[in-house]
Each structure stands twice: as structure tokens, then as C-alpha cells.
Amino acid sequence: MIFLPIALAVLANVFYHVASKSIPAEQNAFMGLVVNYATAFLASAILFFLTPHEKILLEAAKTNWACILMGLSITGVEVGFIMIYRAGGELSTASLIVNILIALAMLFVGGFFYQEQISARKIFGVVLCMAGVALLSLKE
Questions:
Q1: 111 and 68 part of one domain
Q2: For a FRET experiment, which of 50, 56, 99, 137 has its CA 20 to 30 Å from that of 107?
Q3: Same domain for 77 and 8
Q4: What pLDDT digit, counting tens, does each position of 13-24 carry?
């Protein structure tokens, strides 16, 4: 059951990074985001109406702070990657480095805020990830 959502997330991320790197450098990055969000709004609205749901106001009433934070976070992710690519970040490594650093941060967030187990094996994984980021960051 988890394979399809993982495949979707991977495929969508590949397209996301190709698109982020391909946004014209002469375009204001925020106008690109306006178009991105307009497209995402339309796609989300269509999918909302094509999937089982309660009345729109009942669904909207279920919204909490997490939806707002996620919207702000997505904006930060998109602006961050656009800036990375405009600064010369490579498509082949930028996402990898960022996602490794996210994984490291999430290990500690999970441990401290959600009481998830931080084992010696996970700490060793952190060391390996940090070594990987160092190796990926070296200029050839």
C-alpha cells in the first residue's frame, strides 16, 4: 500500500526540481510562485471535488494551524530551492544534500518532540549522513 504514495512523491519531486531549476532567472521568483500556487489551487480544487468529502464549509472548518504552517513552509522550500539553483546549485546534488539535512533535523525533532527512539544505530546513521553531505559539498 505504501509503494504507490512513495512512487508519487518521488516522481513529483523529480518534476519539482526540474521545474525549479528551469524557472527563468530573469523572472521574479515570486511571480513564478504565484503561477505555481494558482496551478496547485486548481489541481487541489478539482481533486477535492473528485474525492469523497463532506460539504465544503464542514471540510474548511476542520482546518487548523498545521495547514497555515504547511503553506508557509512550502513557500520557504520553493524559494529556497529556486535560490539554490540560481546560485549555481546542481540538480544532481542540491536536493540530496537538503534532504539529508532534513532527515538529520527530523531525527532530533522526532526524538525531542514526539518521544521517538534515538538509538545508537540512528546516531551512526547521522554520522554517515554528515560524512555524505561533506563529500557531496566538496568541489571537484
A1: no
A2: 137
A3: yes
A4: 999 999 999 999
